[in-house]
Amino acid sequence: MAVMAAAPFLLPALSTSAFPSGRSLPNPSQSRGTIPCHPKLRHSSRTPVAARSASAGESLLLAKADLLDLISDQARGVRTEGNASRRAGIVRAIDALALYGKDMVTTGPSLSATWRMMWTTEKEQLFIIKNARLFGTETGDVLQVIDVGKGLLNNVITFPPSGVFFVRSTCEAVSPQRVNFRFTSAVLRGNSWQIPLPPFGQGWFESLYLDEDIRVVKDIRGDYLVIDRAPYSWKE
Ligand SMILES: *[C@@H]1O[C@H](CO)[C@@H](O)[C@H](O)[C@H]1NC(C)=O
């Protein structure tokens, strides 16, 4: 079907055959930490509190806190799949935050970072998160590592302590919020093995809102992602 139908974190449908049989990944020694929920405001030029009931900065703070609160118990989107009303609420919160981001340039240097997926509607990612256990592991951080200057983007799924699946892409900012990308190669790597996989597609995503903590993304397939900045830098 649509090879074009790619997403920022799009992965090939992983089947058990994608993993070397008998080489199940080690159990993670750590589970994913709790999602940081410390919405902060960038230096906002505040109007006196008396002037309005809530300044624009305070409204933004509330919108962001609302979104982070709604996703905080959703297991990165796994629980949302079975709850249409929560999904609708989260999408409303995303739309609200996107209003604050509508004039932002989100494809500049501030996009270069190791980003960590907090919540998504993308089925491939949720499939892996749900099913990693079948392969004797658990899904660790799911990352998007972007270097805007070099035009490189890696989508990374970690299987702690040492397993990783990543897809290399080239990427290019084509508008204030849209980035086009094209997969170039993919690697499934364990402690002592590594499997290169063929490239498989291209697509785009738009960062609708971005700040020093989080980014909110909609992609070519209409999927949503809420991402925060990882407290570390991922390197191949
Ligand atoms: C589904 O979402 C609604 C609205 O957020 C919530 O009140 C309800 O408890 C959720 N149901 C489940 C089973 O999590």
TrEMBL record:
Residues 22-33 have a biased composition (Polar residues). Residues 1-18 form the signal peptide. It holds the Pfam family PAP_fibrillin. Residues 22-49 are annotated as: Disordered. It is found in: Plastid. Its main location: plastid. Residues 63-227 form the Plastid lipid-associated protein/fibrillin conserved domain. Transmembrane segments: none annotated. One of its GO terms (cellular component) is plastid. Keywords: Plastid, Signal, Transit peptide. This is Plastid lipid-associated protein/fibrillin conserved domain-containing protein.
